[in-house]
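> example.struct
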């Protein structure tokens, strides 16, 4: 399997030091990205916030065109998110099963360029990511909190949600909040590239019941960067479970 990884805030690479000799820098569509190997799998890594783009200025169409050009079999999106429920504190690793798009971005669809627009299911690869998280939990030297599902709502940045907005989202039963997942997922699905998410909770959102923790960009970036070493350990496990699935399919 050729895996495409889109990195979130604070993650500049997912390749370890032992992989560096096999990593190539490439440029396409004005995007700089890396191609290397992890556990004998070709991996394409692209930073979502190219050149420091604010969330509402990200051109998801061009980011995803890089992945299509590289002919990846699966996209794994790494993202920071806020928590809308007190049982998912900062540091939680989550595998959302669905999303709500409130961004109203004008670059979150290719429908003007392609007819008919395909409608593949969201979340291909979720089960393999969950297996990888469980395997990582067994060998981790520190306790980690895992969330196997949940709805992530993406809002239009760059500002955070007001407390009233955040409270409304929590009342809908949605679990997580960020600014990029939904439009990115929509483009990937229209391009018929399987897409799944590994989200890291970096903060409690302002409407999370019973919790008050003011979020800042610096706090989110710092906490997501701290989780990046764990992400580098989880990805090879994800690839291993995906291999098992491919072997079962062949047999």
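> example.seq
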């Amino acid at each position: 399997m050729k895996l495409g990884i889109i990195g979130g805030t604070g993650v500049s690479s997912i390749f370890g030091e032992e992989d560096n000799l096999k990593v190539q820098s490439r440029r396409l569509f004005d995007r700089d990205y890396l191609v290397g190997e992890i556990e004998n799998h070709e991996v394409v890594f692209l930073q979502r916030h190219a050149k420091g783009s604010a969330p509402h200025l990200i051109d998801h169409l061009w980011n995803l065109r890089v992945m299509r050009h590289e002919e990846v079999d699966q996209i794994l999106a790494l993202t920071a998110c806020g928590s809308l429920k007190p049982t998912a504190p900062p540091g939680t690793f989550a595998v959302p099963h669905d999303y709500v798009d409130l961004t109203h971005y004008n670059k979150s669809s290719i429908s003007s360029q392609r007819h008919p627009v395909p409608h593949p299911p969201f979340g291909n690869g979720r089960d393999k990511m969950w297996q990888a998280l469980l395997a990582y939990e067994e060998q981790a030297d520190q306790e980690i909190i895992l969330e196997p599902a949940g709805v992530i709502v993406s809002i239009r940045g760059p500002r955070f949600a007001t407390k009233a907005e955040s409270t409304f989202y929590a009342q809908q039963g949605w679990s997580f909040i960020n600014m990029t997942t939904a439009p990115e997922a929509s483009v990937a699905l229209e391009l018929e590239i399987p897409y799944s998410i590994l989200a890291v909770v970096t903060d409690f959102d302002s409407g999370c019941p019973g919790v008050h923790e003011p979020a800042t960009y610096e706090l989110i970036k710092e906490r997501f960067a701290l989780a990046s070493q764990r992400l580098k350990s989880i990805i090879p496990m994800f690839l291993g479970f995906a291999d098992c699935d491919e072997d079962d399919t062949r047999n």
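> remarks
The chain has five helices and eleven strands.
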